């Protein structure tokens, strides 16, 4: 192994200005194998772009002979932009798949000699569905997604249909169908795809590799063209990507890899940190540089991140990076426990509203969760708080196919005006589209189930606030909520899964839903490696925050449900001992709130009680006439603003106003759901209605 200081840094000193000693050592390391172990926020992109520029300026390689590959188009675009800023215009920076597609199109006439096959464009599920139908397998969308993911894993892992059952048995891999059946499906899908002369994204890697391995003239031409390779996020390389990289290299060693084994979170897709961790075994003379100075996060966030990953089990030597915060001091991370998910979402929305009022841009705030189905509660809470948002890395809640199907089924059922209790009616209808009593196994199937259950929770909320609520009223509520969502292009708070947040960063990050069974995900239980990957995923979430970090969880899924959840096991040892949330909640144990009933002074437990300012056992003293006046005012304001009525104020908020009859701004904001934004926009009008009714 070569030392990090073996290259002279006297040439082109302007390229090394602003780099710390470790970054400089990586940038001007000798040509040849270089491994940069780069922790989160340590400036890896800056380092590798300066390395490329240094190699070009020093004459080791021409810019056109450099190929840098990464895993997302966004990251590739950032590399190109930074390289242009350093005067390196001709270097190529692409994703693995984009680079392979470009090469395959160029070499196709020589390798195949006929019309180039088209790339599958959005109809992959249809092809898998055709193969599944022939075998009598389910063609439900969520089942097809799981089956497609399994085929993609196999191809990324270089496992063909014939070998698939044996490999699955050896790895004890959990599969959505028996391995032999998936092998048949895999074989049928490949046959259907090839007969249609189509390529999927995995084929781009496999066919390009084959062209280089099997056609000497093609390999010679490519290797004459590209002589220097840089691979970003090397901890996420799959066997198929590694084989393509080997074909590119052709036995050469002018390779720089950058990665962090602590951020390996895509093993479900075939990724493995093994090539990164075994790099020096393959290249004994490699230069190894460790980047541990964290320029992204405050020391408080860095300290928490180190404790999160420090608790990991079986960490190999190459992953033991200890981040050192370089920024000035910031606020301590916040921890919070809530009775239920709606209460958690409302509190997060209120906190975000406060940050925005303090001058933080909405685009610098993110809410991160484990599964996409968790987004609905935050979409609703942010809408009610008047906070714009966008959903990243997943379909918007009301655009998901299962939600559209469910609302269509509810609309059809409502036309018959069935009688009965709303929640029971809702469950009965949703059972027809896949809502079972117990959650199913499997990633996509579980996400669909969670999304359908979220509709039941809307029904529960509606039944608790609107007397005699019907299925028709529920459908209207759902349609209004769908219409009120901000378009994805709006500049707003980011809602994203932890996986979708990889590679991004924000000033303020809210890690939500941190309950055992969600983080780590329930299906990881019993599999130590899977649990450790969940820990790394949690670590990735923590390291997305620059300054403000909030971590929260709920003891129940919905109001008045059993509070029998536990905070994530990953939080043990992180929550300060004197913090109210440091205890582990026990089944049936209720969280104590500072809020008390304004009538009997008992603690308020549920979200609705907090909003109304009284416990549900105490008699309501709502002013029905005032409530009617408030609803009339809300209708007029909603029409003026061209938004659904609930965006102005929800029914439950109006009920709370009609009960408590606030006479000044302080009393008005004391009602849950009315923050600074609502007060500024509607406060004077509401108080005028209340005063007018009192004087009349």
Automatic annotation (TrEMBL):
Annotated ranges, domain UvrD-like helicase ATP-binding: 17-298
Catalytic activity: Couples ATP hydrolysis with the unwinding of duplex DNA by translocating in the 3'-5' direction; ATP + H2O = ADP + phosphate + H(+)
Keywords, ordered alphabetically: ATP-binding, Helicase, Hydrolase, Isomerase, Nucleotide-binding
HRDC domain mapped to chain residues: 620-696
Cited InterPro entries: DExx_box_DNA_helicase_dom_sf, DNA_helicase_UvrD-like_C, DNA_helicase_UvrD/REP, HRDC-like_sf, HRDC_dom, HRDC_dom_sf, P-loop_NTPase, UvrD-like_ATP-bd
Domain (UvrD-like helicase C-terminal): residue spans on this chain: 299-547
Gene3D superfamilies, alphabetized: 1.10.10.160, HRDC domain, P-loop containing nucleotide triphosphate hydrolases, PCRA, domain 4
Protein name: DNA 3'-5' helicase
